């Protein structure tokens, strides 16, 4: 059984990693 808190932490982790990937790609394009 998944808890709502765990789901929120997992989503936050995914968003943070996605933002890091976007920043890295932006830097490479410069």
From TrEMBL:
It comes from the Eukaryota. This is Uncharacterized protein. It comes from Salix koriyanagi.
């Amino acid at each position: 059984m998944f808890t709502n808190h765990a789901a929120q932490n997992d989503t936050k982790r995914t968003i943070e990693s996605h933002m890091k990937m976007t920043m890295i790609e932006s830097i490479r394009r410069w």
